[in-house]
Amino acid sequence: MSEIASPPAPDAAAVARTARRRRWRGLPLSARAAAAVVVFWVLVALLGPMFAPHPVGAIVADDVFEGFSLRSPLGSDYLGRDVLSRMLSGARYTVGLSLAAALLASTTGGALALTAAVSRRWVDELMSRLMDAFISIPSKVLALVMVAAFGSSIPLLLLIAAVTYTPGAFRIGRSIAVGLGQMDYVQVARARGEGRLHIACREILPNMVRPLLADFGLRFVFVVLLLSGLSFLGLGVQPPHADLGSLVRENTSGLGDGALAVVLPAVAIATLTISVNLLIDGLGGPRSRGKDRG
Amino acid sequence: MTTLQLILKRLGAAALTLLLVSMIVFTISSLLPGDAASETLGQSATPEAVAALRAQLGLNEPAPARYLHWLGSLFTGDPGRSMSSDLPVRTLIASRLPKSLFLAGLTALIATPIALALGVAAAMRKDSTLDRGLSLLTLSMVAAPEFLVATLGVLLFAVKLRWLPSITLIPEHPSALDLLRAYALPVATLAFGVIAQMARMTRAALIDQLQQPYAEMATLKGLSRPRVVLVHALPNAAGPVANAIALSLSYLLGGAIIVETIFNYPGIASLMVDAVTSRDMPLLQACAMIFCAAYLALVLIADVCAILSNPRLRQA
């Protein structure tokens, strides 16, 4: 901070801008390209359907599994519908649902972690044990059991994905919060006689946000893979709605003809997940994107 | 505490976790909005028939009693009858489990040496172009969905080149070539993610060793980089690397669910997906528990490898 405040003080906003630019330039090329792809997909999810050349459900082509054409830039699907229009809408489902679920998982996991870190020993122990048990269930298995029990409407899928990845967020969050809880400034606050709520929200939470944001990016990748995997199995987003995974599934019959309709949505999902992964790595996020994918 | 005690303690913790897991699986799967009896009989069933089936399935008992009953049946190896096929769950699982184990075992056998080679190569030339390229590649492979890999594989090898079948069909008396053709695509798809994960973890484990003073000493002594890595660091990294292998193999569990379904492979993961589709709860519960047990076993093996290789942990 002292450099910013030093004498011929340029205005703070400009300094921040320069710092940000330097940080951006310091990123490896792969991370910058990945950032561009991520921004692209966010824009597609937000605005994409506005540019769809045809209605999502409309049959526009004379034949199924057509190739590139002026009318259907990415060809037609197994019913002769426009692949581009369906992908624009599918991307909105994939990105929107996954963002919401990952956000829910990260905030719930973070809040529970904060609670565990400032609670009595036995509360912490109990919560950690339970979460560890949840983590021991491979995520696809847990999600499949919940889908079988509750069904797979869109709100339920959101909840199922969030529940599946909350324990992972809890584990990361708890280790951060416990680490912070041992810092001198928190010990001082305790000695001052501050309550648990103050310690959790005013002392620990502000320093938890950044590491949890990197973890949030990983959760997003996991959720995209989980939800599109479920849809691919026919157990995720149900017709008439379709996310990118459902598009791959409904067009598998075109695989024998090498149809664009089955390859493109799968490639789209991969560009999204790979870019987020490369971006997080470039930003120096958590290195171990380990076992959670299971 | 001796090594044996420490391992026994881990074993106990794993068993306790498995018990908790069984509670979670049972709780979720018996929160069914409808109930199993009316589900099975359909809408036209008379109330009497539903009541009779409820009694037969033991649905009138309170949930804890049902849980204990179910847990007992898991232990005795006879977790009830499948609702959709009316066969004993154990029969279904017994016919599918060996096939899945074979697929997983074959994948592990092929993936491990490749991943180790990649991991060692990357660690040996840390921060070189090779290392950065591999890092980018494995990072991308980890995040690529299995069905993309499978789809592209089928498109290339089955549709364009016509070398391999697009689904796994094993003839009655397969020749070696039949088996090779049948297993090539499923194994390659499964191995894809496992190799990436394992190579990354191997590299990390080796580099961790290379930052120790003894490795620096060996370098300062004038030893070549390959010698430092292979002769000095690698033996010491055996534990962490074994740990990495076991943990990466857990990728097989999630991957199998997609891969077995795509290639129509008659294993336990595709059985579980079928159970979800038909809401066949007894079958699903049993399959889910097998997956959880397999996962915990891998983590336990990873833990034990770490304990055996680290003298400091032994005394802890």
Describe the protein.
- The complex is a heterodimer of chains A (294) and B (316).
- With 294 residues, chain A is mainly α.
- In chain A, 69% of the residues lie in helices and 0% in strands.
- Chain A has helices at residues 2-5, 12-26, 29-47, 83-118, 121-135, 139-150, 154-181, 184-191, 196-232, 244-250, 260-282.
- The model of chain A is unreliable at 1-6 and 285-294 (pLDDT under 50).
- Chain B is an all-alpha fold.
- Helix content of chain B is 78%, strand content 0%.
- Chain B has helices spanning 3-29, 36-41, 47-57, 63-75, 89-124, 129-143, 146-160, 176-210, 213-220, 225-236, 238-249, 251-262, 268-277, 281-309, 311-315.
- In chain B, helix 1 packs antiparallel against helix 14, helix 8 runs antiparallel to helix 12 (251-262) and helix 13 runs antiparallel to helix 14.
- The termini of chain B are close together.
- Classes of the chains: A mainly alpha (294), B mainly alpha (316).
Helix count from the secondary structure assignment of chain B: 15
**Alpha-beta classification of chain A:** mainly alpha
What average pLDDT do the residues of chain A reach? 83
What is the chain-wise order of helices and strands of chain A? HHHHHHHHHHH
Helix content of chain B: over 70%
Largest sheet of chain A: none
- Rounded mean pLDDT of chain B is 83
Strand content of chain B: under 5%
Number of strands of chain B: 0
What is shown here, in short?
The complex is a heterodimer of chains A (294) and B (316). By secondary structure, chain A is an all-alpha fold. Chain A has 11 helices and no strands.
Provide tags for this entry:
heterodimer, A: 294 residues, mainly alpha, 11 helices, 69% helix, disordered N terminus, B: 316 residues, 0% strand, globular
Secondary structure layout:
The complex is a heterodimer of chains A (294) and B (316).
Chain A: H1 2-5, H2 12-26, H3 29-47, H4 83-118, H5 121-135, H6 139-150, H7 154-181, H8 184-191, H9 196-232, H10 244-250, H11 260-282
Helix pairs in contact in A: 3-4, 3-11, 4-5, 4-7, 4-9, 4-10, 4-11, 5-7, 6-7, 7-9, 8-9, 9-10, 9-11, 10-11
Chain B: H1 3-29, H2 36-41, H3 47-57, H4 63-75, H5 89-124, H6 129-143, H7 146-160, H8 176-210, H9 213-220, H10 225-236, H11 238-249, H12 251-262, H13 268-277, H14 281-309, H15 311-315
Helix pairs in contact in B: 1-14, 5-6, 5-8, 6-8, 7-8, 8-11, 8-12, 9-10, 11-14, 12-13, 13-14
